[in-house]
Amino acid sequence: MELLPGTYTFRVSYAGGRQTLRQDIGTNPLVQFTTKHVTVELRDSAGAPLAGDAEYNVGGWQPFGTGTTPATMELLPGTYTFRVSYAGGRQTLRQDIGANPLVQFTTKHVAVEH
Predict the structure, then answer these.
(1) Is 97 exposed, middle or buried (0-12, 13-18, 19+ CB in 10 A)?
(2) Residue-wise pLDDT tens digits, 43-77
(3) In the structure, what pLDDT confidence band is assigned to residue 13 with cuts at 50, 70 and 90?
(4) What is the CATH number of the domain that holds 46?
(5) Which band of pLDDT confidence, cut at 50, 70 and 90, is reported for residue 12?
């Protein structure tokens, strides 16, 4: 692509996320967008991994990666809403994956007495 020197705004969409960069191409003609390797995991109260349903919301709930924890996926930096379902329960987290790409859900040990 050929552009006259100057400052332009560029935007990319990927996997439901969007990122915008404003850049002077006269100074730097390489406009680079970089994804983050994001992991969603579910662990029990002792720290052992569990398999749960993993989703993220980008205009509607969609499977995250394989759809089962642990799951990984490349996303553009930004804040996303993630959800894990396990044993009839569901929990949602909103997280800036640019600051922390590990989205971790943890169960609580429950004892029932009668």
Answers:
(1) buried
(2) 999 999 999 999 999 999 999 999 999 999 999 99
(3) very high
(4) 2.60.40.1120
(5) very high
Peptide bond into 29 cis (omega under 30): no
DSSP secondary structure letters along 90-105: EEEEEEETTT--EEEE
- The structure's pTM equals 0.90
Q: Which two tokens stand for residue 11?
A: 């935007």
Q: Which letter does DSSP use for residue 51 in this model?
A: -
Residue whose pair of structure tokens reads 């894990």 in the numeric block: 84
| 54 falls within a domain | yes
28 is written with which tokens?
A: 């730097």
Domains: count for the chain: 1
**What one-letter code names the amino acid at 5?**
P
Kindly state whether residue 46 falls inside one of the protein's structural domains: yes
| Domain boundaries, position 87 | 36-106
Closest by CA position to 61, among listed 87, 85, 44: 85
